TrEMBL record:
Catalytic reaction equation(s): (S)-2,3,4,5-tetrahydrodipicolinate + NAD(+) + H2O = (2S,4S)-4-hydroxy-2,3,4,5-tetrahydrodipicolinate + NADH + H(+); (S)-2,3,4,5-tetrahydrodipicolinate + NADP(+) + H2O = (2S,4S)-4-hydroxy-2,3,4,5-tetrahydrodipicolinate + NADPH + H(+)
Originating organism: Fulvitalea axinellae
Location of the Dihydrodipicolinate reductase C-terminal domain: 106-236
Pathway connected to this protein: Amino-acid biosynthesis; L-lysine biosynthesis via DAP pathway; (S)-tetrahydrodipicolinate from L-aspartate: step 4/4
EC numbers on record: 1.17.1.8
Protein's name according to its UniProt entry: 4-hydroxy-tetrahydrodipicolinate reductase
Gene name tied to this protein: dapB
Gene3D superfamilies in the record: Dihydrodipicolinate Reductase, domain 2, NAD(P)-binding Rossmann-like Domain
Length: 238
């Protein structure tokens, strides 16, 4: 597979290492310094683009690739207000686009457990629920994309929670997401149900970025044979 890396920071480098180990070729690396090179890129030399850049760069990167007919795997968080536009462009161009807030298999299992637990806890209003996330201090967005997906999983399955806020809020209908930044933490997420009597806690802690990077490469191997807007549910069939 000939892979174009959009974003060559912590994730781009980790994806490069996994991709080379699986026998793939890296045909280009785009970061802030050479972002203009994407405009003149020859799309016939690329099978798939893997995009882990930053919130203000993702939309431009992805739309340029889709315009050129390059399938795109994106993991950048913090730009999702513009995702509907990308999905429209993908359909218009007959292309392939994949987004996930988290590419780790473990987190995607955790998402399913979270939705199941929220449905069960809907019948027990004595429990309040919150989401905590901890990431490294260089992270540009808050809350994390993963925390937002977890919050959406609760809200979709629990009648009493209607929206999330990125602060501690004491309202029955609001779900608090609390964000913490600490050196070197790859990504830790916790969902806690608290009552006067006890706590029920589900927790995922990434030990390294390998799980995110491997997931992105595996999706990159799969996506070029697909058409349309795809998600982890299409890929993993959990
Ligand atoms: N979905 C998932 O599973 C995961 C998602 N992420 C997300 O991926 C993104 C990247 O994370 P991470 O690698 O840790 O961040 P880094 O800050 O380490 O890397 C970001 C990279 O993007 C580059 N960049 C900046 N502007 C552009 C541009 N216009 N075009 C292309 N590249 C550009 C930066 O270049 P320069 O170095 O020159 O500034 C840098 O190389 C974040 O949004 C993060 O939340 C992270 C882990 C897992
Ligand atoms: O920025 C990161 O590092 C991570 N970002 C993703 C997110 O915002 O959820 C995924 C992972 O937690 C690491």
């Amino acid at each position: 597979m000939r892979i174009l890396l959009l974003g060559y920071g912590k994730m781009g480098r980790s994806i490069e290492s996994i991709a080379l180990g699986r026998g793939h070729e890296i045909v280009g690396k785009i970061d802030m310094n050479n972002a203009g090179d994407l405009d003149s890129l020859d799309a016939s030399k690329v099978d798939v683009a893997i995009e882990f850049s930053q919130p203000d760069a993702a939309f431009g990167n992805i739309s340029k690739c889709l315009e050129k007919g390059i399938p795109v795997v994106s993991g950048t968080t913090g730009w999702l207000d513009k995702k509907p536009e990308i999905e429209k462009l993908c359909k218009k161009k007959g292309g392939a686009f994949f987004y996930a807030s988290n590419f780790s298999i473990g987190v995607n299992i955790f998402f399913k457990v979270n939705a199941f637990l929220a449905k069960m806890m809907d019948a027990y209003p004595e429990y309040d629920v919150k989401v905590d996330e901890i990431h490294h201090t260089e992270k540009k967005d808050a809350p994390s994309g993963t925390a937002i997906t977890l919050a959406e999983g609760v809200i979709d399955n629990m009648v009493r929670k209607q929206y999330w806020q990125n602060e501690n809020v004491d309202k029955d209908e609001a779900l608090s997401i609390l964000s913490y930044r600490e050196p070197d933490v790859p990504g830790t997420h916790t969902v806690t149900y608290h009552s006067e009597i006890d706590d029920i806690v589900i927790h995922h802690a990434a030990h390294t970025r390998k799980g995110f990077a491997l997931g992105a490469v595996l999706v990159g191997e799969w996506l070029p044979a697909q058409k349309g807007v795809k998600t982890m549910d299409d890929f993993l069939k959990l």
